[in-house]
Design a protein that fits this description.
There is one protein chain. This protein is α/β, with parallel strands linked by helices and 309 residues long. The chain folds into 2 domains: 228 residues, Malonyl-Coenzyme A Acyl Carrier Protein, domain 2, CATH 3.40.366; 68 residues, Malonyl-CoA ACP transacylase, ACP-binding (Alpha-Beta Plaits, 2-Layer Sandwich), CATH 3.30.70. It has 12 helices and 10 strands. The chain is globular, with a radius of gyration of 19 Å. The chain starts with a strand and ends with a helix.
């Protein structure tokens, strides 16, 4: 039986998320490592004020993902595939064994700072549900301009997309989308225009910083959510991580790829459970669960039942 661990992106964060991690030796060890590596108290990163910054959000999501994935693995739940959306890709790469956790902390810290400096205000992400891809593309093309840029950032489902760009442009797209029959339009808790060409310069700077980082062959298969492909070479994984902030996310296609590879159990690692709903639509004959919803012990029980069968 093939198992997938998926790691969410920005928007899944919540206040005190690091303080609510399971109390155990794994959590303590990972938090201590993060504090030593970054030379700061990471438990200060999950306050209301701190989570207003992109750097703090991304570090919290990275740390949370690594903690829970390691706890599951320690308790005997082993994954065959690892995949993450946006910042979640760093957690996925660490868990897959392609990137050292200390290096990931430094890179994510820099990533958050670069993204935040590039667009400190007036930009972000908006989710659009209920329209087909052709409709969303048409609206975005109609609105996009050099002064007020907007792009499709995430292709999450056949009728669920995320746009990235200026507040003014996103508002205009949202208005037209509602008039065109969109079921739901939501401004996301992300303050930067991720996964579009607006992040190209920041991605290039991150790529330069990665040149001094040693990536390794993954021990768990790493699937890119930007290409929906399995990446096995360290340099390709490094490139994927460096530029994922500037490339669109194809989550639907990525889950189709994982499903076709025989995944029978997909576990979304905290925080959040947004990916669980999206993945269920693809893996109709597999078990798809969010660890934050099901809980560690019940997830272990489910894994044991499925592996016995």
């Amino acid at each position: 039986m093939k198992v997938l661990f998926s790691f969410p992106g920005q928007g899944a964060q919540f206040v005190n998320m690091l303080h609510q991690l399971p109390t155990c030796e794994i959590t303590s060890s990972i938090l201590d490592c993060a504090c030593d590596t970054l030379d700061e108290d990471v438990l200060l990163l999950d306050s209301v004020e701190a989570l207003q910054t992109t750097r703090a959000v991304q570090l919290c999501i990275l740390i949370t993902g690594v903690v829970y994935a390691n706890i599951l693995q320690h308790k005997g739940v082993h994954a065959d595939y690892s995949c993450g959306l946006s910042i979640g890709a760093f957690s996925a790469a660490v868990f897959a064994g392609a990137l050292d956790f200390k290096d990931a902390l430094r890179l994510v810290s820099l990533r958050g700072e670069l993204m935040q400096r590039a667009y400190p205000h007036g930009y972000g992400l908006t989710s659009i549900q209920g329209l087909l891809q052709a409709q969303v593309k048409s609206i975005v093309k109609q609105v996009n301009s050099q002064q007020f840029p907007v792009f499709i950032a995430n292709y999450n489902d056949e009728d669920q997309f995320v746009i990235a760009g200026s507040e003014q442009a996103m508002l205009k797209v949202a208005t037209i989308a509602k008039q065109s029959g969109a079921r739901k339009v939501t401004k996301l808790a992300v303050s930067v225009p991720s996964h579009c060409e607006l992040m190209a310069n920041a991605a290039q700077q991150l790529a330069k910083a990665m040149q001094s980082i040693k990536f390794k062959l993954p021990q768990i298969s790493y699937i890119s959510s930007n290409t929906a492909r399995l990446l096995t070479q360290p340099d390709k994984i490094a490139e994927d991580l460096a530029y994922n902030m500037a490339h669109s996310v194809y989550w639907h296609e990525t889950m189709v790829s994982a499903y076709e590879r025989g995944v029978k159990l997909a576990i979304e690692i905290p925080p959040g459970a947004v990916l669980t709903g999206l993945t269920k639509k693809v893996m109709e004959q597999s078990e798809v669960v969010g660890l934050s919803q099901l809980g560690i012990e019940q997830t272990i029980q489910l894994f044991n039942i499925l592996t016995k069968n």
